[in-house]
Amino acid sequence: TASAGKLGWVSFLVSRRPYFLVLFGSTINHDLSKLFNELWDADVNRFVPGKDYTIALQGKAGFVQPGNSDAARDGASEPLFRNVNEERLRNTKTYAAFVSLLDNYETSTGVAEVVTPEETAENNCFLDAILETKVMKIVHQYLVNKNLSKSNLQDFKSQLYTIWFQLYTRAEGKGPDSCGFEHVFVGETKQGQDILGLHNWVQFYLQEKHNHIDYKGYVARKKKSRPDEDDQVLTLQFSWKGLVKPMGGSFIGVSPEFEFALYTIVFLQSGEHCTREKVRIEEYDIQIVVYRHGQHIGTAYPVLLSSNNKDLY
């Protein structure tokens, strides 16, 4: 038995049996942690903090209820992103295909989406791009081995399309108005009262660049101080479309295929309405949260539980 002090970790190794990592009484999924670290290492398109982008965390966000952004105290006078290597965004196939999707949606729930043939083509182009990456090749083989996906690549692509891009109704009686991709990566608003989703750093950066997002500050964990500007998992507070999101978890710098990979795996491995998997990726102890909407993703996001960063203790 070994203890890791202030992290509250305990690890068990008995004979040749599998071991489990325990964090504050909750079991870390060792198998998924191993897989997700393999995906992390394979993510050659991930942006490197301090090299491909820099952020300015600034102040800690205060407590605020969801709703009108005027109620939020602004803990950050400057944008979150100081700079991003836009040339790399434009010239990396998966990012370029991803960015082309961000203007395809009506962000208000209750307003039926109209998907044009051009938008369908863009969806397919994006899936084709990510399926060429090592990250998604690892995912595909893993899911085939688990009997969760078919070995034929076109079948796998169709499965991903259903999970992420097939429209469903979020506001009852209003027609198909949402999909997993829109919610997680683009963001939505609900009846002019709440921000839903928007857990992607590229969308955040582009919306911030065009003065559509106002970063309000970071959200620290209870009894902890500030995160580090090299951290690639953060919890943020921001306003968008006249509304404030009190806290939203997001990976920073990772590729679109990496996020697709994690959320798809968690979604397919569980039939529960809400699945929370605790994993350790690099230095981060994270809870991956995925909500199911029938055969589609309702929402998905990371929650940072702890980090090796000394500033967090």
TrEMBL record:
Entry's EC annotation: 4.6.1.-
GO MF term (any one): RNA endonuclease activity
Catalytic activity: ribonucleotidyl-uridine-RNA = a 5'-end dephospho-uridine-RNA + a 3'-end 2',3'-cyclophospho-ribonucleotide-RNA
Cofactor(s) this protein cannot do without: Mn(2+)
Keyword field contains Nuclease: yes
Pfam families per the UniProt record, alphabetical: XendoU
Keyword Lyase attached: yes
Entry keyword set: Endonuclease, Hydrolase, Lyase, Manganese, Metal-binding, Nuclease, RNA-binding
Domain EndoU, first and last residues per copy: 28-306
PANTHER family (alphabetical): PLACENTAL PROTEIN 11-RELATED (PTHR12439), URIDYLATE-SPECIFIC ENDORIBONUCLEASE (PTHR12439:SF11)
Family recorded in the similarity comment: Belongs to the ENDOU family.
Subunit structure: Monomer.
Name the record gives this protein: Uridylate-specific endoribonuclease
